[in-house]
Amino acid sequence: xxxxxxxxxxxxxxxxxxxxxxxxxxxxxxxxxxxxxxxxxxxxxxxxxxxxxxxxxxxxxxxxxxxxxxxxxxxxxxxxxxxxxxxxxxxxxxxxxxxxxxxxxxxxxxxxxxxxxxxxxxxxxxxxxxxxxxxxxxxxxxxxxxxxxxxxxxxxxxxxxxxxxxxxxxxxxxxxxxxxxxxxxxxxxxxxxxxxxxxxxxxxxxxxxxxxxxxxxxxxxxxxxxxxxxxxxxxxxxxxxxxxxxxxxxxxxxxxxxxxxxxxxxxxxxxxxxxxxxxxxxxxxxxxxxx
Length: 291
What we know:
Elements: E1 4-8, H1 12-23, E2 27-31, H2 35-54, H3 60-68, E3 70-73, H4 76-80, E4 85-88, H5 94-107, E5 113-116, H6 123-127, E6 136-140, E7 150-155, H7 161-173, E8 177-182, H8 189-206, H9 211-222, H10 228-235, H11 237-251, H12 259-266, H13 283-289
Parallel strand pairs: 1-2, 1-4, 2-3, 4-5, 5-6, 7-8
Antiparallel strand pairs: 6-7
Helix pairs in contact: 1-2, 8-10, 8-11, 11-12
Keywords: NAD, Oxidoreductase
Pathway: Lipid metabolism; butanoate metabolism
Domain 3-hydroxyacyl-CoA dehydrogenase C-terminal: 186-281
């Protein structure tokens, strides 16, 4: 039974996972190597809770108790020493994730399940870096975590049925729906989403329509809640480029990153987090939407 969850990485996804886990009643340890990143995460979680209280979505006492259930640390071994489940949410770089999983295997209790929040990468490859491949899995949450209802549960080659069931149960307690996916690069959602976003970038580059009209066409014509260029700005264009490069390497030509995406990343136009991507964001909006 999962009572304690360790979350590794306090960026957009990590702090979002910590937030929904604490609201679900779990004791959470959120870890990051950067004290400044941890402090920002702490402030953002408090801000999100205050918003929920003001909107009548959550009670003040419930939020207070959830806030107190989250501990913050720069030490990975401290974050996972009592964990029943660890969710890794670091950069989408396989070498970085493998090193994290080696450390998790070393420091987490033997019964603990090790999950990755990757949107594209192989849980089998990560599991191979551990001595517990049957207890390794991908739990792909979506941004913003507290609003998005889906978690993709992705089996690695050796993932046990028991591990899958625990991941599903935890996601359900967090208020999420799940789909079970057999591992293949990009899973279900990222393969489709990256194709749509990449084609939108190519259309913008070719002058087919403006960014605003491309997004409007997809939202109103195909009933998507957010346009593909807006979504790329939200995810971060550097993150999207890493995802595209991984899919291109493993799935071939149709996932070749748009030259426009490559150019924007080189220019430092990374989306909302830098204030400029396919759209421009003023400082207040960037701060409000950063989490």
